[in-house]
Specification:
By secondary structure, the protein is mostly helical. The chain is built from 11 helices and no strands.
Length: 280
């Protein structure tokens, strides 16, 4: 059943043109929602002003070749491998979810636009199911086992806020897609129900960009690149260069260091590591 193209069977009752139009509309929702997010939150203005402010603190000029190297490193580490996650479990969960989502999107476009008939290559349908399963594996792992420890903040585990809209709609879309495909292959009477749930959840996912964290996937690489450039040119994100906290001269300059951190700041003990690590 995982080799069958669910969209080909759906085309018997729904025109491929209708399915293709729906996908195009969802893409427009993402573009429009992201642009609205940029204007509403002034993200582009924030990055520009932060870059301008850092110019005064630059120690050296970063050349074009070095910037290209930084861009490649940003893509390789912060985008493709999510190296910013210190928790290895969180990182693996994120990679499963991210690559599963990409695979699900690409194969959905291929099945709807290039292969809306039963003659579609079995491998494309298999990758569609695999992508949805990867999202479910990584997403449910994150939601139930790795998510921020809300209990430590006095909140129940089932508390849902607007920030959860992206992950929940993403999980719902891929879960209902899998269930719809399985039921359709079995000729179940519940197929239409889960097709409807699949459509509704995907509408929330792509149509709710302006309210969810969907757009962060576009801002994250830009922020990571800017951070690396500021580190390379010595501006250090407009933060002061503190130095060795155990240096007596520095402690004379900033007496609060010794008062709040003790005589040997680098050896303050386990800190948050003394508790069981449940956060990311």
């Amino acid at each position: 059943m995982f080799t069958s193209n669910p969209f080909a069977e759906l085309s018997a009752s729904v025109s491929p043109d209708v399915m293709q139009t729906y996908v195009v509309v969802m893409a427009l929702f993402v573009v429009g929602g992201t642009l609205f997010d940029v204007v509403h939150k002034r993200s582009a203005k924030f990055f520009f002003e932060k870059s301008k402010t850092a110019e005064a603190d630059r120690k050296r000029e970063v050349g074009g070749g070095e910037k290209m190297s930084i861009a490649v490193k940003t893509v390789a580490e912060d985008v493709l491998t999510s190296a910013e996650f210190c928790n290895p479990m969180r990182r693996i969960s994120h990679l499963f979810t991210m690559y599963g989502f990409i695979l699900f999107l690409v194969t959905t476009i291929a099945l709807v636009f290039a292969y809306p008939t039963p003659e579609a290559p079995a491998i494309v349908a298999q990758l569609w199911h695999l992508g949805a399963a990867m999202v479910c594996f990584g997403g449910y792992w994150f939601w139930f086992f790795i998510r921020v420890d809300v209990a430590a903040e006095g909140n129940p585990w089932y508390r849902i806020v607007r920030a959860d809209m992206f992950i929940l709609s993403l999980l719902a879309t891929n879960s209902f897609a899998l269930i719809w495909s399985v039921l359709q292959s079995k000729g179940s009477s519940a197929t239409t129900l889960f097709l409807g749930l699949f459509i509704i959840s995907s509408l929330v996912l792509f149509g709710g960009v302006i309210w969810s964290k969907f757009a962060h996937m576009f801002f994250k690489p830009a922020a990571a690149y800017q951070k690396r450039v500021m580190k390379a040119d010595g501006s250090n994100q407009n933060l002061p260069e503190i130095g060795d906290l155990s240096d007596p001269e520095l402690q004379k300059k900033f007496p609060d260091i010794k008062e709040y951190m003790g005589a040997k700041p680098p050896y303050m003990g386990l800190g948050i590591k003394r508790e069981r690590p449940q956060h990311y």
